[in-house]
Amino acid sequence: MRKHHFVLKGFADAQKIYVAGSFNYWSDKSTVMQRTDDGWKATVDTAPGKVQYKFIVDGKWITDPSNPVTVNDHGILTLWLQSANDSKHQS
After folding, report:
1. DSSP assignment of 9-42, as one string?
2. Structure confidence by residue, pLDDT tens digits, 10-34
3. Residues 73, 78, 83, 86, Cα dihedral to 10°
4. Residue 49 C-alpha from the chain's centroid
5. How far apart are CA 84 and CA 87, in angstroms?
6. What does pTM read for this prediction?
7. Nearest alpha-carbon partner for 51 in 77, 83, 76, 74
8. Domain that holds residue 26
9. pLDDT tens, 51-68?
10. Does the residue 90 lie in any domain?
């Protein structure tokens, strides 16, 4: 397993933010993010390789403004992260 650190800057007025993705079967409530001084964060254990994800800000699904967006096989905009030790995938 690898640790992925998700960070979302800003959103000071948000009540609750979650991160959903391939690591949690796109559950919109299972991975809550913690408020920080400059945004939100969560750390998730994942299998090595690419991880698809989106954030859910007060019920609204958004892409990560700090990471490039791709279109998945279903035509949906998603983002990819990679494990630091897995250089064969895009980050």
Report:
1. E--TT-S-EEEEEGGGTT-SSSSBPEE-SSEEEE
2. 999 999 999 999 899 999 999 999 9
3. 40
4. 14
5. 7
6. 0.80
7. 83
8. 2-81
9. 889 999 999 999 888 887
10. no
